[in-house]
Amino acid sequence: MKKVTQPKVRSLAAGKSLVAKQMQAKNGDLLPKHLANMESILFVQEGKCTLNIYEEDKVLKQGDAFIVPPNVEHQIKAETDFKGIHFMPKNIEFQFFK
To answer: What is the pTM of this model?
Structure first.
């Protein structure tokens, strides 16, 4: 089993109800498997990643976006050095898995 790596995360913008955070990972990094209680959007700013969701792999590259539904387990693997922007409600809650 591949070691899980925490992404580098920084806030980009926050409004009354929404927040945008940049996440960054190195080529080959496997980010933590998780779900959230609310819908969010992942936008690939640079590089390429594989999003495992619904037990399927979806390859996302620079310029792609994916709407992540609520209460669905998912995990990201960086296929190259990767930067993504996660757009989400401020009151979103995450649950992480081993």
So the answer is: 0.93
